[in-house]
Design goal:
This protein is an alpha+beta fold. The chain is 41% helix and 20% strand. The chain is built from 15 helices and 16 strands. Helix 1 crosses helix 6 and helix 5 packs antiparallel against helix 7.
Length: 485
Amino acid sequence: MTSSRVGQPLQLQKTLILLSLLLIASSNAFTSPQPLSTSSSRNNVAARISSTTPPPKTTRLYANQFDITKPTFDLFSLRQIRSDALVRYNSLNQSEPLRINLFLLMTVTLLGYPLWCESVTGELPTTLSSVGAAAAGVGCGALFNRERSRRSNQLNRMEKELKAGDLEVKLPVYKAITSTRPTATLKQLKSKRRIIAFRGNKEQFTKMRDMLCSLRRRFVQSQTLLVLVPTDGSTMEDWGLDDNQMAGSLFLADATNVGQFLDYFRELLDSNEEVSNDNELAWFALNFKGRSIASGMGEAPKILELMGQQLQPMELIDETDAAVVPVDMPVANEILECQKKFYNVLTSSSDKEEMERIFTDGKMKEVNEVIEAGGRIDGWVECLKPDARPANMVIADQDIFVSSPTLAYSTCVEFPPNAGIDGATLLASQRWVRETANDDWKLELHQTIPWAAGTRAGGTLRCDCRGCVALTSSQEKRTFGGLIG
């Protein structure tokens, strides 16, 4: 009986020692560097006095020691992680490491209940208490694993964002002033530019051309740079782009090292288990802080929705801003007149037939997908009622992009009544078509979304010949999923 009671404290001591070692190892991110001993300091002073030229190898050693990107083994993730990612995580998450350690402590303590119960309480553990402690220990273990997984996912996302900061691009410039294009890493562009990078081939970029060119002015106003990284060595000319279409290309940056971008995309795709084709279109977007705001693969993003949610304007846009239309482009002026006619009917008429004459007879897939998902469409009879139509709304800062003799796009900024400088302005886009170059232009699709500095769009509107459907944004998550997280 005596030996049994002696053995229990020994088991308790071993358990406490093991627990202490685990907690010390898991909290290595919070330990400070050890100070140099007095004798070591004196020896260093004597060495500096005896030699005026320090060995160059020592300098290189110190430089390596202070490399903040050097990987460090993380106990909770059981893998090497960039030191700057750990520093960033610890600075942004003060309570999560504490919760992880507490759940670990509670798990070990509860699962070890039969070992320390008699030593602490003086009574032998009962079957009921042992089962209860084991169940509680399993629950705490599950909470520990949940918090550890969240931490690991955050660190994984931060690592990808930090690696993206090492990518280098050539910045766009006014070619009339200079042809020399400066280079900068994405990290150096923090607080200066938002970034959207695409990886694709000639066919994929050709399909994206109209979408990107139609919003070229809005990219500049939101201080967003686009980086198109070809996988097949194709160029802007191969995608059907020229300087007139790109409006000077002040929103389009080039990858300084295409291979570096492709390797980064390949790493993102390799880390995503859902990827089945290495030739799929892939993209990611970064905000001013260099953090991921969206990413995806397989299909191009819905840029208009992305602009309303994440790429708000940084320039002051006033309702007196004139349209940006080349004088020597009569087709662009035709589109501008059609746009004015559409807004005149939208804001001051209740004539459904007059609105239907502006549209084509086609049912657009952008509207169909909302209806098929259970959305409601409001016909033009309801939309043009006096208490429903946007009366007295004005538009400004119009921009026209002519893709071909039979396809064109227009954008503008809508100013509802009493919007003011800081009011709820909206970004609108229209797609115009005609069968031949001699026919009249018809509106195929109209989209609008709130677009104002400092606010995020809560919904968007899509309209065709039948009427309009509304989409509302879902609740924002801690991460955005996709390739980066």
